[in-house]
Structure formats: structure tokens, C-alpha cells
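Researcher: Checking consistency across runs. Here is Prostaglandin D2 synthase b, tandem duplicate 2 again:
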Amino acid sequence: MRSTLLRMLAALVCVLAACADVMPVKDFNLEKVAGKWYMVGFATNAQWFVNHKATMKMGTAFLTPTDVRDLDLSYSNLNTDGSCWRMTHLAKKTDTPGRFTFHSQTWNNDNDMRIVDVVYDEYALVHTIKTKNGVSEVLNKLYSRTPDTSAVLQEKFSQFSLETGILAENIVMLPKNGECLDA
């Protein structure tokens, strides 16, 4: 118990120090990030994830720029019973290109999302600080244009997640999954 508490405290200190410096990618291009992405990697120390990571599978995200340069985020994930889990957010632009904020009605938290690395036709690394009741948690996601990613990209995602305070056991490459049909 004591070693777990110390590890969590060390991760929190790391998160507080590292996350303040995480900046979006330079020369972010909103139009090029648009389209379909597969959510292939997921990393967070949040307790809900720790409890459910063994059953999580790959989902899809559609990123759609709006006329005022905000970003519509639409997520879907095929459940084991064949039904679909869906969630949408309207991420508002900030003064920093590649950085967006939104409130999640589903989770009742405020989100500060930064696209920190991107090769527009290959992958995007997304870093989000989620805050609820004054408590912040980091969530890193690895998006890919295809369901497959290279070992080099997976290692890049893992290393970034470790540097932002995520414990190694909470960095997961999600197994492939079927896709939800359009509603």
C-alpha cells in the first residue's frame, strides 16, 4: 500500500511539473487534422481507466473543423453486444493553435486538449488535462489514420506518456475492434 501511494504521489508531482510545459505542435493545421481517426493508444492514471483498461478496445474519432475554427469531436466504439457507444464534444479554439477546451456533459469535467505531435496522414498524439471538482488528471491518446501502428510510433506514445506522469502499466495499445455503422 505504501509503495503504491508513493508511486502515485511521484506520478502526480511529475504530472504537475510536466503538463504545464506540454505545448501544441508548431504550425498546427486545423483542416489537415480533419477526418476519421482510429483511437489506437490510451494512457491515463485515472481510476476509471485502471478499472476498465482490460476490456477497452479500439474506437474511431471524427474530427470536424467548424466555420469559426472550433473542432467537433465525435467518438464511437462498438460494444461486445453489437451496440454502439457514442460521445460528441465541441472543442473551442483558444489563442494557441492546436489547443482546444471543452466541457464534457457525459463526465462533468473540463478539458484542456492539445495536439502535441501530428503527421496528418499518419498519426496524432493528443494530450488532455481533465479537471473535475478541482482535481486534474492527464489523458493521452494516440490517433492513427489506420488501425495499425508501427512499433516506433507505439514507443513514441509510451515515452511521451511516461514523461507526462502516466505509470507504465496504464499505457495501453488498444486491441482492434469492429466499427459502428453510421447512424
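Researcher: Does this match what you'd expect to see?
Model: One thing to look at in this run: Confidence is low (pLDDT under 50) at residues 4-18.
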